């Protein structure tokens, strides 16, 4: 139950102490951030959140708290990213779309965190993967492109909708040559595949991931290993696809077999191919975007779900690229 008074005060009743802790954040960091976003002041008194300010500040603050309700009501910590996404949706008149995103729980991590899209474009991306057999996701680092695809792949494997998960990426290095690195081929390419292993560990735990790898239910391999194969009853994720050549992209896209789906992810601002070499991701996304059964999702810096500074870094470099292009 909530109540309003004429004195610039609004109270929201919280269901339990877990919800109160989740909403307040460590050292009440979430409430401090809410204050920065809205200009209102907050005080947590037992199981009641008190909001003070002028009518606009209170209305905006209460609306943001309500938009993130599905998170704190479940005892999940509300992050700065969650608050910013809610505020952005409110400002853009997309409150209802944001509610749908927050309510779309995909899975639970090994740490017990509920995994869900955290922005509207992320929700649209997940829905595209659910309906399309081939999905392209283009966007800067930290927008959840590969992680959300891995979450969906693990969910489909658990539901027995697929028989196998295949994670692959090109072994293209920034400034180094594979031949100069120590070890055999697998040892040379493992560093490029490490982010894929990390996603699996966060979802399944290291022990179960290793078991599924041993049984070949999950395969993590460099892109070159895909040549000549037909990938059936599989969920295929091609990561870092901006570093594929057009020939490599054509090769992997034509590997798609029956009862399979493929997600191709990449950041077109971080191409490590030789100067002048066309990125297969850029070509394929433009070429195939209008074909039925294929979805192309374009995420932006507003969808970054890492440290808040990452969004600022992405925007700063985007501005630099724009100036250099104009110059």
Could you give a quick summary of the protein structure above?
Helix content is 45%, strand content 17%. It contains 13 helices and 12 strands.
Arrangement of strands in the largest sheet? 9-8-10-11-7-12
Largest pleated sheet: 6 strands, parallel
Mean pLDDT: 87
Find the count of extended strands (DSSP E, 2+ residues).
12
Question: Which H/E pattern describes the elements?
Answer: EEHHEEHHHHEEHEHEHHEEHEHEH
Percentage of residues in helical conformation: 40-55%
The rounded Rg comes to 22 Å
| Poorly predicted ranges | 1-6, 173-181
Which band does the percent of strand residues land in?
15-25%
Globally, the shape reads globular
What is the CA–CA distance across the termini?
Answer: 58 Å
Helix count, DSSP H or I runs of 4 or more residues: 13
Helix/strand structural class? alpha/beta
Description:
The longest helix is centred in the middle third of the chain and has 20 residues, at 185-204. The chain is α/β, with parallel strands linked by helices. It has 13 helices and twelve strands. It has a six-stranded parallel beta sheet, with helices on both faces. Strands 1-2-4-3 form a four-stranded antiparallel beta sheet, with helices on one face. The chain has helices spanning 17-24, 29-38, 55-67, 69-72, 80-91, 95-103, 120-131, 145-158, 185-204, 206-214, 246-253, 280-288, 308-326, and strands spanning 2-4, 9-13, 41-45, 48-52, 107-108, 114-115, 134-138, 164-169, 218-222, 234-238, 261-266, 294-298. The termini are far apart. The protein is globular. Residues 1-6 and 173-181 have low confidence and may be disordered. It is 45% helix and 17% strand.
């Amino acid at each position: 139950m909530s109540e309003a008074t004429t004195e610039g005060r609004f109270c929201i009743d919280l269901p339990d102490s877990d919800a109160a802790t989740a909403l307040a954040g460590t050292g009440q960091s979430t409430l401090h951030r809410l204050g920065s976003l809205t200009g209102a002041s907050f005080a947590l008194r037992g199981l009641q959140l008190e909001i003070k300010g002028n009518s606009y500040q209170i209305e905006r603050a209460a609306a943001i708290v309500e938009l993130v309700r599905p998170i704190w009501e479940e005892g999940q910590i509300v992050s700065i990213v969650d608050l910013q996404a809610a505020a952005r949706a409110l400002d853009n008149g997309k409150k209802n779309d944001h509610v749908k995103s927050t309510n779309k729980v995909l899975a639970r991590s090994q740490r017990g965190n509920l995994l869900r899209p955290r922005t509207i474009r992320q929700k649209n991306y997940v829905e595209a993967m659910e309906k399309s057999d081939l999905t392209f996701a283009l966007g800067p680092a930290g927008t959840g492109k590969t992680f959300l695809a891995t979450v969906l792949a693990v969910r489909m494997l658990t539901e027995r909708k697929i028989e196998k998960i295949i994670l692959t990426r090109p072994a293209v290095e920034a400034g180094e040559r594979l031949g100069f690195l120590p070890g055999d081929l697998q040892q040379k390419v493992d560093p490029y595949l490490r982010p894929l292993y990390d996603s699996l560990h966060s979802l399944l735990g290291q022990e179960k991931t290793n078991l599924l790898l041993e049984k070949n239910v999950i395969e993590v391999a460099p892109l070159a290993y895909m040549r000549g194969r037909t990938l059936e009853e599989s969920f295929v994720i091609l990561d870092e696809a901006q570093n594929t050549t057009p020939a490599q992209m054509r090769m992997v896209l034509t590997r798609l077999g029956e009862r399979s789906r493929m997600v191709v992810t990449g950041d077109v601002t971080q191409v490590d191919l030789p100067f002048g070499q066309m990125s297969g991701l850029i070509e394929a996304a433009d070429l195939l975007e209008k074909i039925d059964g294929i979805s192309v999702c374009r995420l932006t810096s507003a969808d970054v779900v890492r440290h808040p500074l990452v969004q600022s870094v992405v925007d700063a470099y985007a501005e630099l690229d724009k100036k250099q292009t104009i110059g």
